[in-house]
Write the structure tokens for this entry.
Amino acid sequence: MNLFLLGRIIGIYALIFGVTLLSPILIAVWYREPEILHFLWPMAGSIGFGALLWLIGRRRTHELSVGDGYLIVTLFWILLSLLGAWPLMRGFGLSPVEALFESASGITTTGATVITDLDTMPRSLLLYRQQLQWFGGMGLIVLGVAVMPMLGIGGMQLYRAETPGPLKEEKLTPRLTETARALWLIYFSLTLACAGGYWLAGMGPFDAVAHSLTTVSTGGFSTHDASIGYFGSSAVEAVAVVFMLLAAINFGVHYLAWLHLNPLHYLRDVEARAFLGLVGAAVLTVSLILYLQGAYDQAHSSIRNAAFVVVSIVTSTGFGTVDFAHWPDFLPVLLIYISFVGGCGGSTAGGMKVLRVLLMVKQGAQEVRQLIHPHAILPLRLGQRVVDPRLARSVWGFFALYTFAVAILTLLMIHAGLAPLDAFSAVATCLNNLGPGLGEVAYNFQSVSDFGKLLAVSAMLLGRLEILTILVILSPAFWRR
């Protein structure tokens, strides 16, 4: 393990983060807001800290190992959470724990918050929250991968550690830097298209840009306390639904569809088909129950609200138009359940990812068939592809760790003072990077104790890095290498 090289890479990311603070500074200048100093000092501190680390390790050009990649990714997200908290403490007057919670929620695209009265906040501070999620959505790690080869640093190990999801393609293009740039081009293009859609649907320019940043990142932060419900527009909701779905589909599929100018790639992808099928079935179930239970007088209102909330939850975005925590029957718990599924691997969505769930369902069905035909050879398939048994075992291992994390964190949340159901939903919403929960955390985490907020930060980071990355670092065997 080369500590000088690790420090150099972390320094580069700190430098990149410092440069991103130019955006809220320019907004403050444009709107003549006095909050410029809230960003100038953090920007100077981040750039100075990053420059110092880079200078210390500037002559180290050894290749990274896979273990180094896991360590850098973990340290970076912790560091970014800490750096991101600095402007929040100065601008919003939050305590250190609250600022860390808000920062971690932003960069992990969770969307849970401890801030209220957003409608009265300066626009520079609001934009800062939004852009935290936008950079966290695709990952500054992937951005750095496009830059590092120019500095003599290999990036494949970082890309492997950062990009979530099973069965992901390691490189969409022959060169890793081209892959990172292609991903960011798609991400940026979707953001521009989303902003344009919001503007055409009736949002003002600032709100359109701000919400596009957290829609495409499936983050869910808003510039209003009432979230998307503030606009009361079916057109705005339709734009949000379309781009939340696009952001939750594997960006590799977007790349292929764009490269070949063929939208049929979305239907050919097994995971994308399963994801869209899950969304359709959930919308149908929820809208039917809402209508039959009399939650809404008209069928189209049931369908409209069901479609928006289901898409917002399953993509782990967390935008709100209605309070689903008070919906009838088992619907609130059902929505928390589907948040565990999440979106597709290689997307900005959270959760366990559709492909893992699909593999577990198929393997469960295969085990039943194997009992009926004990001597038959039944390979596990996804479409036309035979799945490596080692991958199937790793998926079940991931599921076991995910379940164990939910159980332990829920017990600790109860110890932190939450009621059992509230504790479970708080863990689910943080681990799945969702945002809204049930009960005490249905709107925000303001009333949760500092210990509970720190637990939530841990859950957000575990969910953002898909548990395994952090567990690798915590393993004694990693440090004995």
